[in-house]
Design a protein that fits this description.
Blueprint lengths: L1 H28 L7 H18 L3 E8 L2 E12 L4 E2 L5 E3 L4 H14 L25 H5 L27 H4 L20 H15 L3 H13 L5 E2 L13 E3 L5 E3 L14 E4 H13 L5 H7 L18 E2 L6 E7 L2 E8 L4 E7 L6 H13 L2
Antiparallel strand pairs: 1-2, 1-12, 2-3, 4-8, 5-8, 6-7, 9-10, 10-11, 11-12
């Protein structure tokens, strides 16, 4: 009888401990309280003031505190000609904020033992011409490869049988692959989207499936990012923002339609502000990588001679690790993601204007949030 009573007591204790653990997990998973009305009004005021100053057509922001999303809001027009307002469902181009996606997906392969950051990338992608220098995935991700960034380049011109050949990043290499290196790898930092297209091809070969499929299956779906997509060559889909730019006279005009999918992890992605904020929250919560891989990704990489830089693997990182960030700019859109991991907060901004300065918006919002 004593044995039965003891067993029952142990069971009750175990159940209480399990319940307490579940409550703790639930509390941790809950988002913090949203911004109160007065703070939200201040935020709205500074965003609208910045939009007027910058002559922005549309924008959306997300504010994160204590690992959670506390504010999402759209401002202005998603399509000026159709008078469609920006909402939290409006889909904007991320532009170069696609590069951090590439960094995380690549480090996931490193964790699985499928990718060596310091191997010659031509082992996996021999289609990239021999430049008489070893180029590594690490150098591609931290912008030390010597591959130039747009500007005058020498393409390979060949015919393709596929209807959309540049869905394969290996084919996208043809846009620049004959161009000489600007410097020996590892000796300078030179920001390069072309380098990240090559990194997308390397990731595709290492992972055994398309770069896009890997990003969707290991990042977008687990996080519930239902609007994340490549900027495809087709008619504008529901919720897509129209793009705007300034012409030579300074007028804000519609930007030419341009499908950016061929850039892949260099600048091919787009989503609504909610999913951009979910992505930022996942980085604050460190939910996509193990501690070791994440630390390596967010460590500023040194040059060959030991000089410090502000580039991690796919991210820009302050030397003390206090700020992790990235920006994006295309003719029709700009974006900004900034995180302060040690203080558990951050912010994301998307605009549909190539002349936008989303960094000025984050600065203004932070000032509004910290007013007393």
């Amino acid at each position: 009888m004593k044995t039965v009573i003891a067993a029952a007591c142990h069971a009750k204790t175990a159940l209480r401990l399990l319940a307490a653990s579940l409550m703790a997990l639930t509390a941790h998973a809950r988002d913090p309280a949203p911004l109160d009305a007065a703070v939200a009004a201040r935020v709205d005021g500074v965003v609208m003031a910045e939009m007027e100053r910058q002559e922005l057509v549309g924008a959306a922001i997300g504010v994160l505190r204590e690992d959670g999303i506390v504010y999402l809001k759209g401002y202005g027009l998603a399509d000026r000609e159709k008078k469609e307002p920006v909402t939290v469902e409006t889909v904007f181009n991320w532009a170069s904020n696609s590069k951090p996606l590439l960094g995380v997906a690549a480090m996931q392969l490193v964790e699985r033992g499928k990718l060596d950051l310091d191997a010659d990338v031509r082992v996996l992608v021999p289609e990239f011409p021999d430049k008489k220098e070893v180029i590594t995935m690490r150098q591609l991700l931290c912008h030390q490869s010597g591959i130039p960034h747009y500007g005058p380049v020498i393409p390979t011109r060949r015919g393709y049988r596929e209807p959309m050949p540049f869905l394969d990043p290996v084919n996208s290499l043809d846009k620049f692959n004959k161009t000489p290196l600007s410097h020996p790898p590892g000796t300078r930092v030179l920001y390069s989207s072309y380098a990240c297209i090559l990194a997308s091809a390397v990731m595709q070969r290492a992972g055994g499936e398309s770069c896009h499929q890997q990003i969707m299956s290991r990042i977008a779906r687990p996080l519930g990012m239902t609007s994340l997509q490549l900027d495809m060559e087709r008619d504008r889909q529901p919720h897509w923002a129209a793009g705007y730019m300034k012409d030579k006279s300074g007028r804000v005009v519609p930007a030419p339609e341009s499908a950016e999918y061929w850039k892949h992890g260099a600048g091919g992605y787009k989503s609504n502000i909610r999913d951009f904020a979910l992505w930022a929250r996942a980085m604050l919560r460190q939910s996509l990588l193990g501690a070791r891989a994440e630390a390596e990704m967010l460590t500023p990489q040194k040059l060959r001679d030991g000089t410090d830089t502000d580039r991690g693997l796919g991210w820009m990182v302050d030397q003390d690790g206090a700020r992790v960030h990235h920006g994006g700019k295309q003719n029709e859109a700009t974006s900004r993601l900034v995180l302060y991991p040690k203080r558990d907060h951050g912010m994301v901004v998307l605009t549909n204007c190539g002349h936008g300065d989303p960094g000025a918006i984050t600065t203004a919002v932070y000032k509004a949030l910290n007013e007393r």
